[in-house]
Protein: GTPase Der
Organism: Caulobacter radicis
Amino acid sequence: MPLKLAIVGRPNVGKSTLFNRLAGKKLALVDDQPGVTRDRRFAHGRLGDLDLELIDTAGFEDVTDESLESRMRAQTELAIDEADVALFVFDAREGLTPLDRIFAEMLRRRNKPVVVAANKSEGKQAEIGAAEAHRLGLGDPIPISGEHGEGMADLYAALLAVT
Ligand code: GDP
Ligand code: MG
C-alpha cells in the first residue's frame, strides 16, 4: 500500500517542485504565473523504498481576497483528509509568514501525522526560520531542497518515523 502524502503550504514555497521531484516527472506546473487557480494534483512517487501517492495542492497567489483564501483552505483540508501524512512545506529563506501560520494551525487541528520541511535549504540557508518553525509544535523541521534534491534521505526517515 502506498503512503498517501499531501504536500501543503502557502504559495511559492516549492510544493510543486518537490512533487515533481518525488514523482520523477514534470507533472505539476511550477508556479510562474501569479493568480493561476488549479485543483489538487495526484501522482505516484517514490522515495527510497517508499511508495508514495502524492497530492500537490495548488496555489492561489492573491490571498488578500477572502474567497480565494477560503478556497485555498478548503482544498488543503481535503488533501490533508485524503492523506496518511501531511508534508508542511515552508520557505526556509523567508522564515515563517502569517500565511504559513494559518496553514500550520489548520494542520494542528486536523490530527494527521505531519512532517515539516524547511525547503530552499540548499547551502547554508537552512538555519533561517528553523527555530521559529520548531515553535509551531509540529515537530523538528527537515531541511530540504526540492529543487536540488537535498535532504531527501532525512525526509524519508522523517516519513517513516511518523507512520
Ligand atoms: P508552490 O507554489 O509551492 O508549488 O512552489 P513552486 O514549486 O511553484 O516553486 C516556487 C518557486 O520556488 C519557483 O521559482 C521554484 O523554482 C522555486 N523553488 C522551488 N524549490 C526550491 C528550492 O529547493 N530552492 C530554491 N532556491 N528555490 C526553489
Ligand atoms: Mg504549486
Notes: Residues 47 and 85 are 14 Å apart (CA to CA). The radius of gyration is 14 Å.
